[in-house]
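Thread: Modeling a multi-component assembly for a lab meeting

Hi all, long-time lurker, first post. My supervisor asked me to bring a structural picture of a complex we are working on to next week's group meeting, and I have zero experience with this. I have the sequence lines for every component (443 residues in total). Could someone generate the structure of the whole assembly? Inputs are pasted exactly as I received them:
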Amino acid sequence: MSAANLNPILKQIAKGAFKLGNHNDPLNVVLAIALFKGINRPLFTMMDKESDPQVKKYAAFREGLTEVIAAITYVATNKILVNPLAKYLTKKTGGSFGKITNGLEFLCVCLSAALLIPLACNLVLNPVMNGVKKLTGKKKSSVNKLDIKENEVSNIAVPAQISTHKAPVGPNSLLQVLQNKYTPYNGGNMKVGV
Amino acid sequence: MITNGFVHLISKNGFQNLIQNTTAQVSIETGLKAVGRPAFTLADTHVDKETRKFSAVKELLYQLLCLGIYLAVIPFTFKKGGFALFKKICAKVNQHPEFLESITKTKELPGVKHCAIDMFKNEKGLIAIHKLSHLSPQKRQDSSNTLAVKLLKTIEKNTDWNKVPNQDKDSFMQKVLNEEQKSEFFRQFYMGKGGIEMSSIAGSVVGLTILAPELSHLILHPIMKFIGMDAPSHSDKVKKEANILDKQA
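Re: Modeling a multi-component assembly
Sure thing. I ran the full set together rather than chain by chain. Output:
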C-alpha cells in the first residue's frame, strides 16, 4: 500500500506525535495555552451580555494583550537563554547537552511564568491601557460633537446670506401672489404657510 | 561547584522524566502562576491596599481552582482518549512502513519500521517503558533500583503478551533491560508516547482555557464571600477619602 493513500492530516499528526515522543518541549503546551487563552478569554468577555460594552472592550483587550505578552516572553526567554546557557554549561561541566537543554527549556518556562510575565505585564499593561484609553476618549468626544439629539435647539450658525436676506413684502410680492393663487381658500382671509 | 550541582540536578532521570510530561509541565507552570501573579499584584503600589489584597486573593484562588479542576478532569480523560485514538492511528501508519521510516529517520539514526502501541493494555505500560528507556541499562538491570523495579512491574502488568510483535515475553524483556535509549527498539514507542502527550496538550488547552475558567468563576465568588473577601466598593473608597479629609481639616 502506498503512503500517498494516507490522509495528509494523519501524516502530520503522526509526524508531530513522533517528535513529541522524542522530545516534549514545554514551550509547546504553554504557547498553545497562551494562544487559546488569548482568543477564548476576550471572546467570553465580549459575549457577556450584562456588562457595559465599553468595559467589555477594555477588559477583552487587556486579557488579549496579557496573553500576547505571555507568549512573547516564553519564546524570547527560550530563544535568548536556553542555547547559549546550555552550551556554556556543557563546556564547563561536561554534562549531556541534550539533558541540560531539556532542563533549561523547562526552567525558562518556570522563570517566565513566575517572574518575567507578571513583571512584563506590570510594566507594559498600564501604560498601553492608558494610551488606549486616551485614544478611545478622543474618538468618543469627536463622535459626541457630531451626535444630533432629537428636539434639541441646533447651535449651528445659519449662513449670513440666508439670515440677512429680506424677502420683498407687499401685495405684488412673489410670496403673496403664489399664496393667493394656489391656496384652496383664495377668497378667505386664511393664509397657509405664512 | 554550584554549576556542577545545578547541572547534576537538571540532568537527573527523575527530573528529565518529570519535565517530559505535559501534565507535570502544566501543573508546575500553573502553580508558579498562582504564586507569582498575586505577589506582583500585592507589590503594585499604583492601586490602594484593599483592592490589591482582594485582587491577589482572587488571582490565587482562581489559579488554584484552575489547577484543581485541570488535575481532576483532564489528565485522566485525555490520556486514556489519546491512547485509544493513537492505537487506531498507529495501526494505519503501520500499513505504510516506508512512510514511517521516512518520518523517523534522522542524520544519526535509521528510521523505525514499526510503531508499537497495540501490545499495551493501557497508557500506563507505554509511559513506563518510555520512562525506563531514560535509565541506563546498568540501572535497569539493578534489582536494588526501586524506580526500575517499579517500572518493570508496571510494564509486565499492563502488557498483552499475545500482541508483542515477532517475539516472546522473555526476549522482549531482555531488550527492555539491555537496549540503549536511542535504539530502534525504544524508538518504536515514541509515536504512542507522543500521541498521549499531544492529547494531553489538547486537554490542557480545553481545560485551562474553557472548562476551568468557567467553572472557577462559578465557585470563586461564593468562596470569596465565605472567607470574607468582598470586592472593595466605590462608596467605601469615597468614605475613606472623606475620613482622611475630615482628619486633615
